[in-house]
Amino acid sequence: MMLSLFRALFEFGFPAAAVVLFVSLTLAIEVGYRMGRWAVTKHLAQSDDTSRISTLTAAMLGLLAFTLSLSISFGQNRYEARRSLVVSEANAIGTAWLRAKLIDGDESSTILANIEDYARARLAFTMAASEADALIQVARTNVLQNDIWLAVQAVAHRSPNPVTTALVNALNDMFDMAAAQRFAYQSGVPPELVLALFFAALLTIGALGYQFGVAGKRQEILSLLLLMMWSGGILLIVDLSKPRAGEIRVEAEPLVWAIQGFDQK
Question: pLDDT tens digits for 215-233?
């Protein structure tokens, strides 16, 4: 239930999610501060305990920072995988198109035209703004793959030679890149990890507020900056793991260049 609500939060957009995250952390530090003041009032803690409390709080902050850095690295690796696959797919399409030009017969023009349409479908997939739009391009990709393969089959049966074999291998690589790219877009930072990081941030920021409450002194400016940093860090992780909805998008220029090259070769 909590995971579903957390996912739904980011469906409203990143500005709304940023506000909710910041407000949640602000409430956590305020609750912690009031608990610290209550503990002093009830003689459960004293101002002399500040050094011991700060040691534990520093340990919690260090562990949280380490977890945050690992999560960002995880999301960045997924982003780099998608980015690298765009280049690989563009190269595979260009190779298949060049080898298709070596084929004799009427099938050559058909295969070339289908590969060009295929490249545009892959570009549309990469630039799709939503998962629904991406699924449309996946269906279009599957249809074009079938059409290309049927045409190549006719050529392979009629003229089995090294050129045809090279084309078949290039097409296999091109089709494999499409599957790899689709999987890369489906892979992101597990939402369970982001949710755990969020609750860990609430507890750690609450502990920091408790320390301030025991000491009897607030640090408004530094606390504000810290909350902004933690909110931004969590948003960055989610952004990296949402290639369709986030602000950080994979560049599609390699596919654009491949399509532009069709008219120049």
Answer: 888 888 888 888 888 888 8
The answer to which of 3-12, 48-57, 165-174, 183-192 has the lowest mean pLDDT is 3-12
Q: Position 87: which residue type?
A: V
As a residue count, the chain comes to 265
Please, how many CA atoms are within 13 Å of residue 167, restricted to the half-sphere of its CB? 27
Residue 115: which of 135, 134, 95 has the closest Cα? 95
Q: Where are the alpha helices (DSSP H) in 42-161?
A: 50-100, 107-127, 131-158
Nearest to 88 by CA among 175, 214, 168, 177: 177
Q: Is 235 or 47 the better-scoring residue by pLDDT?
A: 235
- For residue 61 the two structure tokens come to 């902050």
Distance of CA 192 to the CA centre of its chain: 15
Which residue is listed with tokens 């494999």? Answer: 176
Residue with tokens 């409203």: 12
Residue with tokens 């305020």: 30
Residue 259 to residue 60: CA distance in whole angstroms = 52
DSSP symbol at 40: H
In angstroms, the CA 169 to CA 22 distance is 52
Residues 17, 15: Cα–Cα separation, whole Å: 5
Tokens, residue 213: 């409450």
End-to-end CA distance of the chain: 55
Cβ-contact 255, 90 below 8 angstroms: yes
- pLDDT above 70 covers a percentage of the chain that reads 91
| 83 and 251 Cβ atoms separated by less than 8 Å | yes
Contact of 6 with 197, CB cutoff 8 Å: no
